[in-house]
Design goal:
- 2 copies of one chain form a homodimer.
- Chain A is an alpha+beta fold and 152 residues long.
- Chain A contains 6 helices and 8 strands; from the N terminus they run ββαββααββαββαα.
- In chain A, the strands form 2 sheets. The first copy, chain A, has a 6-stranded antiparallel beta sheet. In chain A, strands 2-6 form a two-stranded antiparallel sheet.
- In chain A, β7 (108-115) and β8 form a beta hairpin.
- Chain A starts with a strand and ends with a helix.
- The first copy, chain A, binds a DNA duplex (30 and 30 nucleotides) through loops.
DNA sequence: TCTTTTTCTTACACTATATGACACAACTCT
DNA sequence: AGAGTTGTGTCATATAGTGTAAGAAAAAGA
């Protein structure tokens, strides 16, 4: 499983393409250049996985109960919009229009890579997502990490 | 885990690079020269880790649930734009523009190394951060250390 | 103290990358 | 078929990134 890291600024061009900066491209396995999957994220962003990782992710859904209405709906929505994409000759990926609309991407974007995901944000949404003051953040840390402890 | 120590003055050049002084470079494990991670710290400074240490830090996040909104946001903010960097042929590191802006770094910088972190400050912010009179400092010690005791 | 070596600083030159414009192919719709 | 839309590739240019070198300053050794 690739471990991505980095935060990159970029733009979407008139045709809806975003350049994958070299710093990020270098982290991608070569055989994934033409086998990436992009989908809606849970927040107003898009997520790019390698095809392999995407399959791993969807396997997490396998335990769900396809006789259960809510589960079925979730699976449907989760898969909706997932599209395979690839790098073109200029290291760009074409973002399907539906998805860029969903993420409210118009011109400036931020690529935010961590773990096995590359998140694609409109700059505006990215900034408001990240705007949090240190005190709030440390409270958040307590909540999140203590919950984690209880789970164990 | 490396244990850094020292305070170094330096400058950022027109291309956004900062020289890692030899005294500091010697403290870095050789195999980390091209695998350093930099990201935003609290208090308008930047923090550099070795990639290994960074991964140790982020392992704390591993049990979190990416289907949970708060957890996701926490992960994102914790990562905070971490980016991998390396030393060039002249022992410099290129600071991503976004980050130097965040830390208000324009010309003079201070590298402040302790534990497994190297903090990068603009000289101005560093000085105002460190400007404190002895009485205040001792009061601060009481507050901080007694709180710690209660936690234990 | 003087010499030698190392480290720092600055400047510059070269390479790689990002960006925007444009041309054209494929496809859709009327 | 023709007009419009969408997808893909190419190119030129500006900017960002990287490497090299020379002199100044500092440190180390004799």
């Amino acid at each position: 499983m690739p471990k991505f890291i980095g935060e990159f600024d970029g733009k979407i061009d008139a045709k809806g393409r975003i350049v994958i900066p070299v710093g990020l491209k270098k982290q991608l396995p070569e055989d994934s250049f033409n086998h990436l999957v992009i989908n809606r994220g849970f927040d107003k962003c898009l997520v790019i996985y390698t095809r392999n990782d995407w399959e791993t992710e969807t396997q997490k859904l396998e335990g769900l109960d396809s006789f259960n209405k809510l589960d079925r709906q979730f699976i449907r929505i989760f898969n909706n919009g997932a599209t395979e994409i690839g790098l073109d000759t200029a290291n760009r990926v074409l973002i399907p229009k539906k998805l860029s609309q969903y993420a409210e991407i118009e011109s400036d974007v931020v690529l935010y890579a961590y773990n096995n995901k590359i998140e694609v944000w409109s700059k505006k949404n990215y900034e408001s997502q990240m705007a949090i003051d240190p005190d709030e953040f440390s409270k958040m840390a307590e909540t999140v990490m203590s919950k984690k402890k209880n789970d164990e």
